[in-house]
Fold these 4 entries.
Entry 1:
Amino acid sequence: MLKFNIQKSFKGQDKHSKDLHFKGEVDLSGVCTIFGDSGAGKTTLLRCLIGLESCTGNITFQGQQWLGSNGNNKIHKLAVEDRNIGVVFQEPRLFPHLNVQQNLELAVRKAKNSTFTIHHLAEKLGFSDLLSHQTTQLSGGQKQRIAIARALLTNPALLVMDEPLSSLDVTSKRLLLPFLKQVSEQIPILYITHSEHELFYLSKQMLLVNDGQVEAIGEPQKLFLDSHLSLIKFAQQGLILTVLVKEYDQQEALIKGCLDGQTLYVSAEQAPTTSQIQVKINSRDVIVALQPIEGSSLLNCLSAQIVDYSQDNQKAVVLTLKVQSQCIYAYITLRSFNKLKLSVGSYVYAHVKTMSIIN
Ligand SMILES: Nc1ncnc2c1ncn2[C@@H]1O[C@H](COP(=O)(O)OP(=O)(O)OP(=O)(O)O)[C@@H](O)[C@H]1O
């Protein structure tokens, strides 16, 4: 469990800055993603938690006090190096005067009984042939793989990552995302990202940061559907759903899947390698009708119920359509909404024009 109630002020440094106040309790297991708008305070929260940024208040991790009062009204702050955290930033920050092996050996020396070895991680992350290379000769993706290995070799109780994949190519992301998911079964990960794809692929829970505060903590699917949260403006553009793979038709490059018991066809150049896929359905790609549309090129028609709706200032309505356990949004005009006499509880047919696979 990670518990925190901390304040941070940048006012001395920047008169325009607001005070930030973060409060929350997270039962850390798997990946917990820190998500929010640019400037919301994600990096500041993370840096305060791990002790790289000074702040006031209380932090405890798995019963160990990292920050707080020690009873005599004196501030207790556990040194960063005693918190047993592995840290990976957007920039790999390797020692340029050492080769890959030497960079990693520094971490091994720091660790107490590491469960990982250089050999094992080099194989898993595909850099066995780079061990004798100077780090200055490596690409960004190679450096980041080594930075992740270095963090793991310190045998951390918590791995903290600030947008670790944001500047990497697709191939590196394809290698690292499943790896991190696997690692998170052993070591909890606190992970900042702007990518919805990474968020939904990795996280069991998310910590939503908004305007210098923790706005909500919970499962991504639930928070993305909560119309009271700031996330809604972003979520209403489209939601991510889990689809079970039934079969793949190579000739038509089409996956036949199952979404909450209903058939869904998804275009894919290759057969999926997993038994379930995640697809993003944009709200503007959903056509709502009172009957199934016949004789059209539309492949997907889901029967759904309207469970909520909101009107935006563009004279459009965003409908929340529940398929069974999962929801999609549909963005329609106010005129269509009125014409179809829609309301909460109405049953409709949601025709999905297109969707993208995100894992
Ligand atoms: N060193 C600093 N001096 C003054 N203000 C700062 C400093 N660092 C952060 N801030 C302010 O604190 C707020 C939160 O910044 P932070 O970098 O934590 O946001 P973020 O959510 O991580 O943003 P991004 O996604 O763009 O990285 C911003 O208003 C920012 O201007």
Entry 2:
Amino acid sequence: MTIDRQKLKKSVRLFLEAIGEDPDREGLRDTPDRIVRLWEEFKSHEHFNMTVFEDIGEYDEMVVVRDIQFYSLCEHHLLPFFGKAHIAYIPDKKVCGLSKLVRVVNKFAYRPQVQERLTAEIAEFLEKELNPKGVAVVLEAEHLCMSMRGVKNPSSYTVTSKLTGVFKESEKTRNEFLNLIHNGK
Ligand SMILES: Nc1nc2c(ncn2[C@@H]2O[C@H](COP(=O)(O)OP(=O)(O)OP(=O)(O)O)[C@@H](O)[C@H]2O)c(=O)[nH]1
Ligand SMILES: [Zn+2]
């Protein structure tokens, strides 16, 4: 779905009024338009070409891209949660362009989310597109709704993971992955 610009602009203006701001003052005058542009930018992450390569020689080991910075929004408070994503898969005759792993994260991150669903959606998408021997996704994030409000606990990190195929079945594979993302620095 595309952004309903008029509706969004109207609601941002109403929102500013509701919290006691003057939406016509200099700094806020263009804010509804800015929010429209911001959400259009967020939405633009939704579609991309998942380039896949099948000519990969004899390569059948793990591919890991770790420390992928991501930004998302918690769907309960619409406040950011952000951190690092670590993704691994073991190809079955098919790999994707490495940058596409970052794009997959962004595709599902730039929308109201919960961290668990984001983690699962990334893994499911890679399963579907690559049909690999297994996928592992770990997300580590700080939630502003827990840092700047509510329980006000900025030091807590939320870690979620989704493992499929060999990562689920084989402890050795899982440990290799965990070792690569945590100790391989
Ligand atoms: N499981 C999960 N919970 C989240 C995520 N992001 C935010 N939350 C939590 O969603 C919950 C929403 O709880 P509510 O009780 O409806 O909202 P609230 O009264 O603002 O909650 P407090 O944050 O405890 O003040 C809170 O506990 C948040 O910490 C997430 O990605 N996953
Ligand atoms: Zn929240």
Entry 3:
Amino acid sequence: MASNKSLLMLPGDGIGPEVCQEVRKVLDWMDKRRAVSFDVKEGLVGGAAYDAHKTAITDETMQDAMDADAVLFGAVGGPQYDNLGWDVRPEAGLLRLRKEMDLFANLRPAVTFDALLDASTLKQEVIQGLDIMIIRELTAGVYFGEPRGMQTLPDGTERCIDTQSYTKAEIERVTEVAFDLARKRGSKVHSVEKANVMKTGVFWRQTVSELHKSGKYDDIELHHMYADNCGMQLVRNPKQFDVIVTDNLFGDMLSDVAAMLTGSLGMLPSASLGAVDEFGRRKALYEPVHGSAPDIAGQGMANPLAMLLSFAMTLRYSFDLQEDADLLEQAAQAVLSRGIRTGDIMAAGAEKVSTAQMGDAVCEELDKRAA
Ligand SMILES: NC(=O)c1ccc[n+]([C@@H]2O[C@H](COP(=O)([O-])OP(=O)(O)OC[C@H]3O[C@@H](n4cnc5c(N)ncnc54)[C@H](O)[C@@H]3O)[C@@H](O)[C@H]2O)c1
Ligand SMILES: CC(C)[C@H](C(=O)O)[C@@H](O)C(=O)O
Ligand SMILES: [Mg+2]
């Protein structure tokens, strides 16, 4: 059936293709049971693209990503690619997608499901009912700042530079996303930087404060916090947070910390969003927070829930299919409540399943809900 909803699926490397396979099952289910169909195109990215084309993403695939309503991304990378040239290593494909699609707002929700309270390394009372949203700036900062790279000083000393760089507009636009999103949640934002040691931190804090005082966000409670303290507070008392907005590098690290509040990195989805255009559309890429997990790849051990929950975010943010997104999230929760677990979230008395069995169990729960 023809559809005006286009998806580009980029499974990538390692466990990327394994977890994307489980999304295909949900796509089939939606087509059959909900009469919602997508035009799905597939492409290569990361090491898979390098093996075929000697580049981490081809210009054609890049164009497909620009044209799609949403991109579903698995994961990239692996030890066999670690010594490749900088511009062709797998991670370069992901960074190119983020930069050229201008996906500046990366939403990384960390929600602790009751069924997984025993999977976290933290005490139950610390994490029960946790629902926080980390918004990571994704297209600037030290990931993209110039100059960067090796230099040789006049006395022959070698040094290497990365540059942290932010314009005011780059800080403002991601902060606006954070304030707007907070308004639909708990109306509280923690802005995180290191204004005590970094000039960009001072600028970040000042810009966020100015925007907050502009009169548009009087209903939002704003707090400033240093990034090192934030890492500690996330483990000490994560429920003090509602929305955290932070730069590219701090957001990368803090979201991996937040993953363990939910039980596993295999549980954390994400949405990377661009600006809303004149037609109300925005470019978007959805991916689990985890990587290609070379240590478990090819063994059917990966937890596909981060990928499936990323697909739920796709339904919610790119296609306004709120009911379907709810169904998928509820199905994932129900499977966990039945004690079905992949190895990363295994607990005593639970049933250990493979990646494919977890995907099947989610589809079974979807069936029950749609009946
Ligand atoms: N978005 C991405 O594509 C992305 C993100 C992070 C890392 N990477 C790349 O992935 C490769 C491996 O990096 P890493 O080991 O630091 O991080 P990783 O996220 O791949 O793995 C970290 C640990 O978490 C486990 N894990 C991750 N996802 C899981 C899942 N779904 N189910 C069960 N266990 C899971 C892994 O087995 C591993 O022990 C590197 O090449 C890195 O650059 C890619
Ligand atoms: C693979 C890598 C480029 C990426 C990042 O550092 O942004 C990853 O760690 C992530 O969290 O998405
Ligand atoms: Mg990361």
Entry 4:
Amino acid sequence: MSNDEHTAPYGGPQNDAAAKTPKRIRTHHLQRFKDEGQKFAMLTAYDAMMANVFDEAGIEVLLVGDSAANVMQGSSSTLSITVDELLVYAKSVVNGVHRSLVVADLPFGSYQVSPEQAVLTAVRFMKEAGVHAVKMEAHAATAPHVKAVVDAGIPVMAHIGFTPQSEHQLGGFRVQGRGEHAEKVIDDALSLQSAGAFCVLVEMVPAQLTADLDAALRIPTIGIGAGNASTGQVLVWQDMLGLNNGRLPRFVKQYAELRRTITDAAHSFRRDVVEGTFPGEEHGFSAE
Ligand SMILES: Nc1nc(=O)c2c([nH]1)NC[C@@H]1CN(c3ccc(C(=O)N[C@@H](CCC(=O)O)C(=O)O)cc3)CN21
Ligand SMILES: CC(C)C(=O)C(=O)O
């Protein structure tokens, strides 16, 4: 490969990992990360500017999650968001990236009915938004839905463990796969790998189960609230950057205090306006 097919987002060519970093992340690169024992990061994104920031920061995968229902629309559940709504966010994220792999969730109700419905919805995300892969909450019984989408040429990330679209069936936001239930999660993961999923996202399960899963699977795993043994980790960006002032799940680590930063800036702007110190002369236009 020629030199310009590489970028060095982690700090220059002296960094071996960066020197080997591809220009555009594809699903086979995530497989290579797993095969070589290298971890990778995923963050959610819902608009072009944040997507561009994360892309340039070297985040390998951006997820246009149905968590948009919560953090973009103020809903308490992910069930309400529609395909047409999530398509707008997905298209915006695609417009903001050069390098990150963009994965879009399929919204609740848009893929559970039949494998055919799953293919038709996934095709819309590929065609109308231009995403690179889709994510589906799935288990062993819905592996045929995943297989149908994969057979249509669309990469699928399978989401197992706690699957928020099933919150009412699962009895709320609860850790999955404890004790004897671990076997079902492993069985789901193996079925979805066999169906052709390129990656398994596992949410809110005990850390030991994630270690067992990552060892049992050929394909990479991405964890959220699932310990440290997965190949990758994902967080919702508003949680991670401290914009969300709701109750945060225990698995969130806050890396910044954006809500404070933005509040301070808003106060300063308002004060300047009220006191008449903004705009200054330098922000205006001369008569000639
Ligand atoms: N802002 C946001 N962050 C997320 O991580 C997220 C969303 N939205 N929306 C979609 C799903 C739903 N997720 C969630 C949301 C809440 C909990 C939660 O409240 N967990 C509690 C209880 C866990 C237990 O003890 O069983 C916790 O304290 O972690 C977990 C997962 C993860 N996803
Ligand atoms: C929390 C992540 C994994 C997700 O599914 C979403 O953002 O919708």
